[in-house]
Automatic annotation (TrEMBL):
<keyword id="KW-0479">Metal-binding</keyword>
<dbReference type="InterPro" id="IPR051610">
    <property type="entry name" value="GPI/OXD"/>
</dbReference>
<feature type="domain" description="Cupin type-2">
    <location>
        <begin position="40"/>
        <end position="110"/>
    </location>
</feature>
<protein>
    <submittedName>
        <fullName>Cupin domain-containing protein</fullName>
    </submittedName>
</protein>
<dbReference type="InterPro" id="IPR011051">
    <property type="entry name" value="RmlC_Cupin_sf"/>
</dbReference>
<dbReference type="Pfam" id="PF07883">
    <property type="entry name" value="Cupin_2"/>
</dbReference>
<dbReference type="GO" id="GO:0046872">
    <property type="term" value="F:metal ion binding"/>
</dbReference>
<dbReference type="InterPro" id="IPR013096">
    <property type="entry name" value="Cupin_2"/>
</dbReference>
<dbReference type="InterPro" id="IPR014710">
    <property type="entry name" value="RmlC-like_jellyroll"/>
</dbReference>
Length: 115
C-alpha cells in the first residue's frame, strides 16, 4: 500500500500543454503502478493542451475536480465538463483541451499504460 499526498508531488510540464501544472500521484516511476497512471492537472484561465492523442493507443479519463474544462473533438464539437463530471476517450481518439473560463480548473487524469 502506498499513500501519496498532494504536497509531496513534483510538478511536470508536458509538451503541447500551456498554462497548466501537472502532478502525478501514481505511476510506474512514482509507486510502481504498472497498468495505469493517475495525476492532477491544474489549469489557469486560458490554459490547456493542443490537439493530441489521435495516434495514441491509450485510453484516457478526465474528471474535473474544480472549475470547468472545454474539450474539442476532431469535428470541432465542444464539450464543457464541469466539476464532478468526466469524459473518456477510447484509443486513438484525439482531443483539444482548454480552460475557457475566468477561474482556475483542476482535473484528475487517468491513463492506462500500453500492454
Amino acid at each position: 500500500m502506498i499513500k501519496r499526498t498532494y504536497e509531496e508531488l513534483e510538478p511536470y510540464f508536458p509538451a503541447g500543454h500551456f498554462g497548466v501544472t501537472c502532478k502525478r500521484y501514481h505511476g510506474k516511476d512514482e509507486t510502481g503502478a504498472s497498468k495505469f497512471w493517475i495525476g492532477v492537472s491544474e489549469f489557469e484561465p486560458g490554459g490547456g493542451a493542443d490537439w493530441a492523442y489521435e495516434d495514441n493507443p491509450l485510453e484516457k479519463v478526465y474528471f474535473v475536480l474544480e472549475g470547468e474544462m472545454t474539450v474539442t473533438d476532431k469535428d470541432g464539437n465542444k464539450y464543457v465538463i464541469h466539476a464532478n463530471e468526466s469524459i473518456s476517450f477510447p484509443p486513438n481518439e484525439g482531443r483539444g483541451l482548454k480552460n475557457e473560463s475566468d477561474k482556475p480548473a483542476k482535473m484528475l487524469v487517468i491513463i492506462n499504460y500500453p500492454e
